[in-house]
Design a protein that fits this description.
The chain contains ten helices and 44 strands. With about 850 residues, the protein is mostly beta strands. It has an 18-stranded antiparallel beta sheet that branches. Strands 9, 10, 11, 12, 15, 16, 17, 18, 19, 20, 21 and 22 form a twelve-stranded mixed beta sheet that branches.
């Protein structure tokens, strides 16, 4: 959970990027007569191509790096007004337009097709000619500037203590055109890269030549997300995927199902006739946008677009979102991007009246040196990662280098932001706040050399150990970025046993994972727990326990080496030696009734993991998958080594799994996992496939909510876990419920497995080495459970109601649960 939260916050930090020291203006246009807002009013910087029309509240926002000193508002039936600006800063300019009368003859209006439709049909028809992502090949140079800003700063923020620690930063406070609120830069980055795209073979690759970042300690981790590909916005796509939310594009093939279109103007820009089409969402039950597109009349290419997220859309944490795009004819007359810009305000509250401090993230990408149709260099074709971070050259940190690669010059104030943000990190108060937040997210309280934790395991309780106390720690990257050593010690008041463990991690390569991990532990474990189960000795697993805890004492030593051959292809090799001990909750009895103290296991194993176009967040010792649009495949093989430990078994275990998350807009997405395996050989039940029960009220997507631990076992099996997230499509249509922004989920899980006679310890006259615990059987009749959930409750919680559909009859030794209510926590946009 902590790791997922870290990735969520990393997404806030890096998913969008940069407000510059530009001329910015924001305001409202109203009617002089009645003061009502006017929509569809054209607001431009005279003498430039930068302009927009007002939204339904009459609001507009414009930014430009051009030298401008005026802004103009015009609309048919109203007198045009032009007002002065102060260049190079934020301006708030409201217009009050006065209606004018025209002497015209009789006008006859007849019904007919929306005049915007033929233009949009032309855009859709010509997508293969105008969408760069459909060209055979292209390459270009990109410059990306990103910034994360603290906004909604109240006067109380400038307390005496903050002035003493941070007083120098207030010289850099500016005002955002997106929100009209003052902001203070907290992180800023620049990067320059070469971007390559090919249709045959299909790939898109970005080679980051240089990057510099202030406000983030781990530059390599941040550099993975400061290029132009992450958060890529393409209006030609049917859906625009940003922050893991799929917004319906106004240029979608089925856009008329989502939007009303209005042809509001035509104009001549740089000698080309341009149609201006305004679009408004028909409903807010699915993620949609509001704004305008400008279409070239000759080629039906997108000349520019400006879109924002309207209020009421079921999206979390984002109060404002603005997408801007500019395109021009480039190499061989084909259209290509000139500039992309994403601006978003992240906040706990989505109400504009909220006084809570929030964040503004902006990303601006400028494109140059465009080459269309040229072969991709062999060097790039041989690269094995979609985003390649080049080794830094000494000259890339110098300001002279960045002045050459920037498409525009930074002001002195912008240049000073780098030094200001870096200086803040050395203020003691900032370091204390940062340490506290990092502890909550990661689980460890980091001193300079030692991280103490995890804090959620400091105290817990269970039936076997009673009250458990644990203290642990691990080295930080200040000690080494190659070797990390960790360990812990624990004590239970009921079993009066001291437990403990330790680990050594050696990272040989960070760009592609090459890592050796050695672990040893003498501690209790829950055999048969799910992949995402709350870990043993976690305070939450104690509090949310439903009483089905069957922990076993285990002595285990393990060595695992991961070798990532190329991006998306990893192999694993390892060895494990363990001894599992019996206790009163998990007894071990031979068929003749003689008790056994423990079973031994020694095994070697190899594995393979395959993915395609997977986004991976890499840290010095850990990495986290951020998903792929393609299925992810895993394969594993284990072999037991007889008598390597006294009494260890000979067996062979083959397992495989596939996980796929298909996007199915506008009705959400599914998360599908299928797993299967086969064990060859005679083994005690502890080494069989113990199907994943759930002993808590906390929801585990890869465990069965109504299944107990030690209820079913197999030596040949196939299981499935399916969830479909509707993202509020159904509940968003109910008059009162839709205000809650709840989202519905369907769940179906099942497993079918068999047991050979030599491994089935539940039958009379069994040939198995050990009898099964009371009530544990084969699952030769498939086990199935299904239910529904509601997520996004208070934007954090999810509640699932799960029914057991098979194996509902009572049986000795098991308290059958035919219905379960599970709680979980999710941070999602």
């Amino acid at each position: 959970m902590a790791q997922r939260t870290l990735i969520f916050l990393a997404g806030l930090l890096w998913a969008a990027g940069a407000s510059a020291q530009t001329t910015r203006v924001r305001g409202q246009v109203t009617d002089t007569a009645d003061g009502k807002p006017l929509q569809f009013v054209s607001v431009v910087f005279p003498g430039t191509t930068t302009g927009i029309t007002t939204d339904e509240q009459g609001i507009y926002a414009l930014e430009t790096r051009d030298t401008v000193s005026r802004v103009q508002a015009s609309m048919v039936g109203y007198a045009t007004r032009t007002l002065p600006l102060t260049p190079g800063t934020f301006n708030h300019v409201d217009f009050a337009l006065e209606a004018v009368e025209f002497g015209i003859g009789q006008v006859v209006i007849t019904p007919g097709e929306n005049p915007a439709y033929p233009i949009l049909d032309g855009v859709i028809r010509n997508k293969p000619l105008n969408d760069p992502e459909r060209y055979d090949t292209y390459s270009c140079r990109t410059y990306t500037k990103m910034e994360l800003d603290l906004t909604n700063i109240r006067p109380q923020f400038r307390s005496r203590r903050l002035q003493r620690n941070f007083g120098f930063v207030f010289d850099y406070v500016d005002t955002s055109a997106l929100t009209g609120q003052a902001y203070l830069p907290a992180m800023i980055s620049e990067s320059t890269a070469d971007l390559y795209r090919s249709s045959h073979p299909a790939f898109k690759r970005e080679v980051i030549r240089a990057s510099r970042i202030s406000g983030v300690e781990d530059n390599f981790a941040a550099a993975q997300f400061t290029g132009g590909m992450h958060g890529d916005v393409n209006f030609y796509d049917n859906f625009i995927d940003i922050f893991n939310v799929r917004f319906a594009s106004p240029l979608s093939d089925g856009g008329r199902a989502f939007y009303n279109y209005f042809l509001v103007d035509s104009m001549v820009t740089e000698g080309r006739k341009i149609y201006k089409i305004r679009f408004h969402p028909k409903r807010l039950t699915t993620p949609v946008l509001d704004g305008e597109v400008n279409i070239d009349s000759a080629s039906y290419a997108l000349q520019s677009a400006s879109a924002r997220m309207p209020k009421g859309v079921n999206v979390n944490w984002i109060r404002h979102l603005m997408l801007d795009n500019e395109n021009r004819p480039a190499d061989k007359g084909r259209w290509f991007r000139v500039r992309d810009r994403v601006s978003a305000e992240f906040s706990v509250s989505t109400a504009d009246s909220s006084k809570l401090t929030s964040f503004i993230g902006t990303r601006e990408v400028a494109y140059s040196d465009v080459r269309i149709g040229e072969p991709i260099p062999d060097e790039v074709l041989r690269m094995d990662n979609n985003v390649v971070v080049r080794d830094e050259e000494p000259g890339h940190r110098r300001e002279e280098f960045w002045e050459q690669v920037r498409p525009y010059s930074l002001s002195e104030k912008e240049k000073g932001i780098y030094a200001m943000v870096d200086s803040v990190q050395h203020v003691p108060l900032y370091r204390n706040i940062y340490t506290l937040i990092n502890t909550v997210i990661v689980g460890y309280w980091n001193t300079k050399y030692i991280g103490i934790g995890p804090y959620y395991k400091l105290a817990s309780f269970n039936k076997l150990e009673g009250f458990r106390m644990q203290l642990g720690g691990r080295t930080t990257t200040e000690v080494s970025r190659t070797v990390r050593v960790g360990g812990y010690v624990a004590y239970g008041t009921r079993d009066e046993d001291v437990k403990g463990g330790g680990s050594v991690e050696v990272a040989f390569n960070r760009h592609l994972t090459r890592k050796l991990t050695l672990t040893a532990r003498h501690d209790v474990m829950q055999l048969g727990a799910g992949q995402n189960a709350l870990t043993e000795s976690n305070i939450l697993s104690s509090i949310l326990s439903r009483g089905d805890q069957r922990l076993s004492m285990v002595n285990r030593g393990e060595a695992v080496y991961e070798h990532e051959w190329c991006h998306g292809v990893s192999t694993f090799a390892g060895a494990r030696m363990q001894r599992i001990f019996a206790n009163r909750y998990v007894p071990m009895l031979r068929p003749d009734g003689v008790p056994v103290n423990s079973v031994s296991d020694a095994a070697v194993h190899v594995g393979l993991r395959l993915s395609k176009n997977e986004t991976v967040y890499r840290m010095p010792f850990d990495k986290q998958s951020m998903g792929s649009v393609y299925p992810i495949l895993t394969l594993g093989f284990s072999a037991g080594i007889p008598d390597a430990l006294h009494g260890s078994y000979e067996y062979y275990r083959l397992e495989g799994g596939i996980r796929y998350r298909p996007e199915l807009p506008p009705v959400g997405y599914s998360d599908i996992t299928v797993q299967g395996g086969r064990i060859f050989g005679k083994v005690p039940y502890q080494l069989l496939k113990l199907h994943e029960g759930n002993g808590t009220y906390f929801y585990d997507p890869y465990a069965f909510s109504c299944m107990n631990f030690y209820e079913f076992a197999s030596d040949a099996w196939v299981s499935w876990f399916w969830e479909h997230h509707f993202n509020g499509v159904l509940l968003g249509r109910l008059p009162l419920i839709k205000k809650l922004k709840w989202r519905e989920v369907l769940v179906c899980k099942g497993v079918w497995g068999t047991l050979s006679r030599e491994n089935n310890g539940s039958t009379a006259g069994t040939q198995a080495d050990l009898l099964f615990p009371a009530g544990m059987t084969s699952v030769s009749d498939p086990y199935v459970e299904a239910g529904f959930g509601v997520e996004n409750i208070f934007r954090l919680f999810r509640v699932d109601c799960i029914w057991r559909l098979t194996h509902r009859s009572p049986k000795p030794g098991q308290e059958i649960q035919n219905f379960a209510v599970n709680l979980s926590l999710h941070l999602k946009f």
